[in-house]
Design goal:
With 217 residues, the protein is mainly beta. The protein is 7% helix and 22% strand. It has a single domain, classed as Rieske Iron-sulfur Protein (3-layer Sandwich). A 5-stranded antiparallel β-sheet has the order 2-1-4-5-6, with no helix packed on it. Strands 3-11-10 form a 3-stranded antiparallel β-sheet, with no helix packed on it. A hairpin with a 6-residue loop joins strand 8 and strand 9. It is globular, with a radius of gyration of 17 Å.
């Protein structure tokens, strides 16, 4: 059964502006996974524009992200893709056939904090967080989680596809071989305040990772 997304728009208060909204895009794992919709939330859930520009942490309640869905939040004016990976998607990240197609399957390049240098590039395997900016020329990749023989590219394996020049990434943001993008998608600093609340833009207490140390964004 195909899954679709629905655009929900919450009107701003009189004191809010569209620029102050934290945009959240959702997309479902399904044949229509590319049809993401932008959902502005009311300002009391979001940092204001000056906070975003300063790079202050952003918190996200992951109970609002169903398995198979992705949301996009802004941190330092960049989109952060937050994906709730299904058990099947988690298992695929370890598939030897997939690993053989990746340029940096072990995350050897510094495109992530040291505490997520693992096979799923995240603190929790079921939740993935990557900066949604292609490492080729800065385009925004499309969330295309389901394999497809023709769309968005021939023999599409599922993951992220950059429509500008054809770069491909898996659901951990690891770049495929033979595409223009040279690096994996960056992983932002983050840590869990609880089992379901993540703070993006802040390391766990035992880490001093600097986002500026990544190879490329």
């Amino acid at each position: 059964m195909n899954e679709t997304t629905q655009t929900v728009i919450v009107p701003a208060s009189d004191k809010s502006t569209r620029r102050d909204f934290l945009y959240i895009a959702t997309a479902a794992f399904g044949t229509l996974g590319a049809a993401a919709s932008l959902v502005p939330f009311v300002s009391n859930m979001n940092p204001d524009a000056s906070t975003l520009a300063a790079g202050s942490p952003v918190e996200l309640d992951l109970t609002k992200v169903a398995p198979g869905q992705q949301v996009v939040v802004r941190w330092r004016s960049r989109p952060v893709f937050v994906t709730h990976r299904t058990p099947e998607a988690v298992q695929k990240l370890k598939d030897p056939a997939l690993l053989a197609m990746l340029a940096d399957p072990k995350s050897s390049e510094v495109q992530q904090p040291p505490y997520v240098e693992n096979w799923h590039r995240s603190v929790k395997p079921e939740f993935g967080l990557v900066i949604g900016i292609c490492t080729h020329l800065g385009c925004i990749p499309i969330f295309e989680p389901q394999p497809n023989p023709t769309t968005p590219a021939p023999n599409w394996p599922g993951g992220y596809f950059c429509p500008c020049h054809g770069s491909k990434y898996d659901l951990a943001g690891r770049v495929y071989q033979g595409v223009p993008a040279p690096y994996n998608l960056p992983v932002p600093p983050h840590h869990f305040l609880s089992d379901t609340m993540v703070r993006i833009g802040e390391n766990p207490p035992n880490s001093n990772f600097e986002f500026s140390s990544i190879e490329q964004i």
